[in-house]
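Case study 2.
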Amino acid sequence: MKPTLLVLAAGMGSRYGGLKQMDELGPGGESIIDYSVFDAIESGFEKVVFVIRESFSEAFKERFEPRLKGKIKTEYVFQELNDLPEGFSLPEGREKPWGTGHAVLMAKNVINEPFAIINADDFYGREAYQQACDFIAHSSEDNEYAMIGYALKNTLSEHGTVSRGVCETNNHNNLVNLTERTKIGLEGEKIFFYDENSKTELTGNEPVSMNFWAFKPQFFTELETAFKAFLKERGTEMKSEFYFNTVVDNLIKQEKATAKVINTDARWFGVTYKEDKPIVQEKLRSLIQDGIYPEKLW
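Prediction:
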């Protein structure tokens, strides 16, 4: 059974200032999503599922359907604030999305096969898709997951701080701890993560999660159970967020699952801030000049 790619594209890009999921960055008007799906097709993925908002679904489909038709199966699911498990309701005044765990959960009814998750606004490099596909092909356990690990120093922005899941692994390269650092930035040549009252220097070689994971469909059951527990505990807060990688971290600590950290040399880059856009455009031009992509993808 060939894997599915789940693309988290519901974020509104508040720091970026617009719908960066559809921003034209390639010479043929391609967005990062175009390159991601192209790499997924080349690597053996059979279906792509987009998690989007209903408010921009028409524009999104108009953009991608003509390009992808006949090349890969496509499905769309919506992430909306009021889409909650039975027995739970949206607290009055809540405007912030529930987070990546909630976004992934929206796809539970359309994915019944092993799948990989990516962010819509991150460029991961073809090697990463091939590594994810290879893991899925050779992994037989329902509770065996994987994460593509990037060196922290290769994932920073010169234009502001970033949020990263910093990983600790054991001798078998299995994840033992994942710590969400919400504010990591550069000071000259040095890298720090900032807490409320302090800052701690990092080496830059730490493997970090860029939200590229490989899962089995059984993960949806674990995710739903964890989301209900989260809503009971923090559902009335206005800004609480439910991260799927926190669920993985808890499953590992309870010895209910393993997650292989697959270190990759693939190039990662993203558009967190508007100032990142020309840098990304230049990197894409360079990859085209190196013959990795055609001038026009589709």
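The longest strand covers residues 175-187.
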